[in-house]
Write a structure and sequence with these properties.
Elements (H helix, E strand, L loop, with lengths): L7 H27 L34 H5 L1 H8 L1 H31 L7 H5 L2 H24 L24
């Protein structure tokens, strides 16, 4: 497997980055359905945690003439359509993880052969420290950055990611 710079390392590094991004978005989507954070402008209003009724997202009998057909279809189609964002982020995470595993194994085995050592099979590589070092190193940096933003309750005037500077700390669901 070769990238623009001629190595599997390139593809492994790119896939590592994508993997952490898609995992971050997937978890963000899942967590924001059930958790509310006092003081967060992106949080639902306190007391509204969890999935909404069928009325709020306009599904099933509440679908309008302009709603997508699968919103009103019911059954597996509405369930699939209702979770399409998380399912897509999850699929992209798995694909980027798989790409990173394949490219990382190729790069690792190239190094192994250069040292006249035996290469690893795919399943062996998934248990190797090199694979988990590459994987977890990127994840920790993403979650540190997002976690810092969530925990610190800081504001930035004019930012849609921040509540208004003068809003009380306990206010939730406001836009700046």
């Amino acid at each position: 497997m070769c990238g623009p710079n001629g190595t599997a390392d390139f593809w492994s590094d790119v896939a590592e980055n994508w993997q952490s991004e898609y995992l971050q978005f997937l978890l963000f989507i899942w967590v924001t359905v059930y958790l509310v954070q006092k003081g967060s402008p992106e949080s639902k209003v306190l007391g509204t945690a969890g999935k909404e009724s069928d009325k709020d997202p306009k599904v099933l009998r509440y679908a309008t003439a302009g709603s997508p057909r699968w919103a009103a279809a019911g059954g597996w189609r509405t369930a699939l359509f209702s979770s399409s964002l998380a399912l897509t982020m999850g699929a992209l995470f798995v694909l980027s993880w798989l790409t990173q595993a394949i490219a990382g194994r190729s790069a690792y085995n190239g190094e192994q052969l250069g040292r006249l050592q035996d290469p690893l099979g795919f399943w062996q590589y998934l248990g190797a420290a090199d694979f988990w070092n590459r994987t977890l190193q990127n994840w920790q940096s993403e979650f540190l950055a997002v976690g810092s933003m969530v925990v610190l309750f800081l504001t930035h005037r004019g930012s849609p990611e921040s509540k208004p500077v003068g809003a009380p700390h306990e206010s939730t669901g406001l836009s700046g």
